[in-house]
């Protein structure tokens, strides 16, 4: 069954840390959680650190929106399935790049440790 002129769209919910900056799409971090509070509002929580949005003025996170030209408030962006696939692809690339950098950093640290151990042995003592 096909409906012409209708295309389902998906919300791209972004969150920003008020103190540290940095905006990310909710769901791209394994510690992200969205929940409906007892006030009936949608809230974000970082399950790793327990910080969240909108429950008190001390909360560190705020939702980030776009100016859609007609709403007086920042709006949540909606994208088509093709747009969502593009976002997923970009996020996968970023994740792979971060993992590669981390692996290279760990290799460098290990090489430095090995060099230090070899030098210690040459000097006649071993660090514990």
Description:
This protein folds into 2 domains: about 10-80, no CATH class; about 80-128. The chain is about 35% helix and about 25% strand. The chain has one helix at about 80-120; strands spanning about 10, 15, 20-25, 30-35, 40-45, 60-65, 75-80. The strands form 3 sheets. The chain has a 3-stranded antiparallel beta sheet with strand order 3-2-6, with no helix packed on it. The protein has a two-stranded antiparallel ribbon with strand order 1-7. A hairpin with a 3-residue loop joins strand 2 and strand 3. The chain starts with 9 loop residues before the first strand and ends in a 6-residue tail after the last helix.
What attributes does this structure have?
single chain, 128 residues, alpha+beta, 2 domains, 3-stranded antiparallel beta sheet, 1 helix, 7 strands, 23% strand, elongated
Q: How far apart, in Å, are the first and last alpha carbons?
A: 70 Å
The helix fraction, in percent, is 25-40%
What class, by secondary structure content? alpha+beta
| H-E string | EEEEEEEH
Question: Order of strands side by side in the largest beta sheet?
Answer: 3-2-6
- Count of alpha/pi helices: 1
Largest sheet: 3 strands, antiparallel
Low-confidence stretches: none
> What spatial form do the alpha-carbon principal axes imply?
elongated
- Mean pLDDT over the full residue set: 88
Radius of gyration: 23 Å
Total domain count = 2
- Total number of strands: 7
In percent terms, what proportion of residues is strand? 15-25%
């Amino acid at each position: 069954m096909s409906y012409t002129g209708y295309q389902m769209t998906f919300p791209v919910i972004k969150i920003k840390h008020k103190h540290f900056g940095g905006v990310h799409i909710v769901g791209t971090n394994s510690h992200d959680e969205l929940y409906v509070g007892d006030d009936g509002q949608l809230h974000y929580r970082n399950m790793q650190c327990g910080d969240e949005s909108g429950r008190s003025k001390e909360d560190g996170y705020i939702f980030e929106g776009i100016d859609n030209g007609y709403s007086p408030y920042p709006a949540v962006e909606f994208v088509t399935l093709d747009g969502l696939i593009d976002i997923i692809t970009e996020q996968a690339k970023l994740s792979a790049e971060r993992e590669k950098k981390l692996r290279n950093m760990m290799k460098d640290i290990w090489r430095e440790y090995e060099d230090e151990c070899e030098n210690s042995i040459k000097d006649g003592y071993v660090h514990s």
